[in-house]
Amino acid sequence: MVIWNIALLIIGPGPMAPAVVPVERITVSLAMANKLTAAAISSCRAIRREAVVAVVDRGGNLIALQRGDDIGPHNTLAAQRKAFTALSTKTSTGELAGRAAADPASRNLVTVPELLLLGGGLPLVVDGDVAGGIGVAGSGGAANDELCAKGAITKVLGSLNPIQSLPKRIP
Fold this sequence. Notes:
The chain is built from five helices and four strands, in the order ααββααββα. By secondary structure, it is an alpha+beta fold. It starts with a helix and ends in a 14-residue tail after the last helix. The radius of gyration is 21 Å and the shape is globular. About 40% of the residues lie in helices and about 15% in strands. Strands 2-1-4-3 form a four-stranded antiparallel sheet. The longest helix has 17 residues, at about 30-45.
């Protein structure tokens, strides 16, 4: 009887065992991604520009891509990398580019091949959580690219959600 009780104590979970529960996260659906890409193309056309727009989900997977007319082929990859960078860093790519230029500690970000530190990528913040990223490229410069991305977020999500940037320096 004593051996049996010891075996239960060793094998059985104790009162301090952590609960195993699934993690629920918001991510970008195909429907949302399609609305965002269409809205970004529309925002670019409103300023008489064409562009490529990419939307990635919270895992960095490409969900939707739209390419305007007569856009250079390199912009397709640029839009996808901007979306990935904004998602991954939880920061606008324009802000990240500025930080890398001004802060010696951040300059090494340009050496990470998956990241593109060029304006036009924004994280998609839903209920305070980064659910994905949008990247725009080819509209005639980083300022135009970012304007088109902001226009899409405002149109689809109702307002430009505050972008939760990483702190300038990690304490």
